[in-house]
Design a protein that fits this description.
Length: 258
């Protein structure tokens, strides 16, 4: 009823617009557009308010479920029922991600610890395989730098942890921190590096991450996925290079390689 009254008032206002010679079709069109814009904003505001009210009611409704799941998780953990504890922590985390009862990072840490204890270490590319991207020996690389200096103004979720350059390859080890439940990560096959002493070098291989359009899932906020990107070798005289994934925020420039 309120929306109908709003449109009726808008119609009356339009009918009352000045009928002078200076009032043009453009003026009328602009006036109508403005009035409908106001009406649309009012509708969107009402919808947002309704959604917030529903969310608040659901938060209160599901809080006992969250507390019960969390309590059962801790009880199972105390008696080393790892699988049941993990299941309950994940149940509590689903509710917590939706309604924000507590700090999710603390729940994520519990889940991470239980993955190994519950025997989930063979689930495929994920945070459980982070260690596989760290080589036992980097002596074959002429240049290795942890936490290299670079410029990136677009992405804060992924960072470069190590760069290793040899006569056979350029290796970039990165870490992506998930900010949402069931976050995903992948890398475009069109990604490339470009040195200051040479042309573009296309992505040649990946470790612990999938090529788009396939996706690697990161289940919980706060979890970190470590992966490696392999490119052809840079020229010996290159002193820095850029890493670019087209049409994404993963654009890192002036990465030192000397």
């Amino acid at each position: 009823m309120k929306i109908r009254n709003l449109f009726f008032s808008a119609f009356l206002l339009i009918m009352a617009l000045p009928a002078s010679a200076q009032w043009t079709n453009y003026n009328t069109t602009s006036a109508i557009s403005g009035l409908f814009g106001i009406a649309n904003s009012a509708i969107q505001s009402a919808e947002r308010k309704k959604a917030m009210e529903i969310h608040a009611r659901e938060k209160v409704e599901f809080e006992p479920n969250f507390k019960e799941a969390l309590a059962e998780a801790k009880d199972n953990e105390a008696v080393e029922n790892w699988e049941d504890a993990l299941e309950k922590y994940e149940e509590a985390s689903k509710l917590n991600c939706n309604y924000g009862y507590t700090d999710q990072k603390s729940l994520t840490r519990c889940i991470n610890n239980l993955y190994v204890k519950a025997g989930r270490t063979a689930d495929g590319p994920s945070i459980l395989n982070n260690a596989t991207t760290i080589l036992p020996d980097y002596s074959a690389y002429r240049y290795v730098r942890e936490n290299p200096v670079y410029v990136n103004k677009k992405s804060s979720a992924a960072r470069i942890l190590r760069v290793a350059c040899s006569d056979k390859e350029t290796r970039i080890e990165m870490e992506y921190e998930c900010g949402v439940m069931n976050g995903v990560a992948n890398i475009s096959g069109r990604s490339y590096i470009k040195g200051n002493k040479g042309g573009k070098l296309q992505l040649a291989g990946v470790e612990n991450i999938t090529l788009a359009p396939s996706k690697t899932t990161v289940p919980w906020p706060g979890q970190k996925l470590r992966f490696a990107l392999i490119f052809p070798p840079l020229p010996d005289n290159a002193t820095e290079f850029d890493f670019i994934e087209p049409s994404s925020s993963w654009q890192y420039k002036d990465i030192k390689c000397q």
